[in-house]
Automatic annotation (TrEMBL):
InterPro entries: Cyt_c-like_dom, Cyt_c-like_dom_sf, Cyt_c_oxidase_monohaem-su/FixO
Any Pfam family the entry gives: FixO
Transmembrane feature ranges: 12-35
Keyword Nucleotide-binding: no
Protein name, UniProt field: Cytochrome-c oxidase, cbb3-type subunit II
Gene3D superfamilies hit by this protein: 6.10.250.2250, Cytochrome c-like domain (1.10.760.10)
Organism: Devosia honganensis
Domain Cytochrome c: 52-228
UniProt keywords, alphabetically: Heme, Iron, Membrane, Metal-binding, Transmembrane, Transmembrane helix
Taxonomic lineage: Bacteria, Pseudomonadati, Pseudomonadota, Alphaproteobacteria, Hyphomicrobiales
Alphabetized SUPFAM superfamilies for the sequence: Cytochrome c
Gene behind the chain: ccoO
Highest taxon, organism lineage: Bacteria
Entry annotated with the keyword Methyltransferase: no
Length: 243
């Protein structure tokens, strides 16, 4: 084996050819599964896209580094399913750019967090985690309740997501700013348009408890409250497996 390696190193052309061969094998192993993508990724007819306010909240989630301590991928292990809920399916992340599956859990997995706790709970937890969980190591994010959310550029965010495959319509992109405001102000004229464009199941309410202002807290809580609720395919699939 070592003699072959020594002889190979003496031949520049042979070494380059061998590197190309090995790299090609590695590339084939990674690329080949893509040819069966239609068979391995589940279908979800009820899958909806994120609203502009939820997109803004997801951007804040990324900005604040929440993904570094929280995963969004429940594995098929029994203890994870018992604790967090149905294991994650690929289709649930089809509109996530980038994916936020995570690689470690300092805190719990958030894949099924949506509507598990109240908006007031999330607001209080983000403002000072130890008020609700005394042993929490999570830092406080008090500025989220103070900082006004920027919404004038959300149409551009939706347009960028459409460019990578998220099926936003021209109407959704054109009304992104109004829809972000309307989702956090249920008594406003803009609120009705949110339900029309994103469905009646969309959360439309004052997420941070401050009706006079639209804050970063509104957006982040709106995003957290939709995690795992964009489609019911995981629950339906795994209920069928049990039966």
């Amino acid at each position: 084996m070592f003699r072959f390696h020594y002889r190979l190193e003496r031949s520049a052309i042979g070494l380059v050819a061998f590197i190309i061969l090995v790299a090609s094998i590695g590339g084939l192993v990674e690329i080949a599964p893509l040819f069966t993508i239609d068979e391995t990724v589940e279908k979800a007819e009820d899958m909806r896209v994120y609203t502009p306010l939820e997109v803004a909240g997801r951007n804040i989630y990324i900005r604040e580094g929440c993904y570094a301590c929280h995963s969004q991928m429940i594995r098929t292990l029994r203890d994870e399913v018992d604790r967090y809920g149905p294991y994650s399916l690929a289709v649930e992340s089809q509109y996530d750019h980038p994916h936020l599956w995570g690689s470690k859990r300092t805190g719990p997995d958030l894949a099924r967090l949506g509507n598990k706790y109240s908006d007031a709970w999330h607001t209080a937890h983000l403002y000072n985690p130890r008020d609700l969980v005394p042993e929490s190591k999570m830092p406080a994010y008090r500025w989220l309740l103070r900082d006004q959310l920027r919404i004038d550029d959300l149409g551009q965010h939706l347009a960028a997501l459409r460019a990578v495959g998220v099926p936003y319509t021209d109407e959704q992109i054109a009304n992104a700013t109004q829809d972000a405001y309307g989702q956090a102000n249920p008594d406003s004229i803009e609120a009705s348009g949110v339900a029309e464009r994103y469905g009646d199941a969309t959360n439309i309410r004052q997420f941070d408890g401050q009706p006079s202002r639209l804050t970063d807290m509104d957006a982040l809580v709106a995003y957290l409250q939709v995690l795992g609720t964009l489609t019911d395919v995981a629950h339906a699939t795994q209920t069928a497996e049990v039966e």
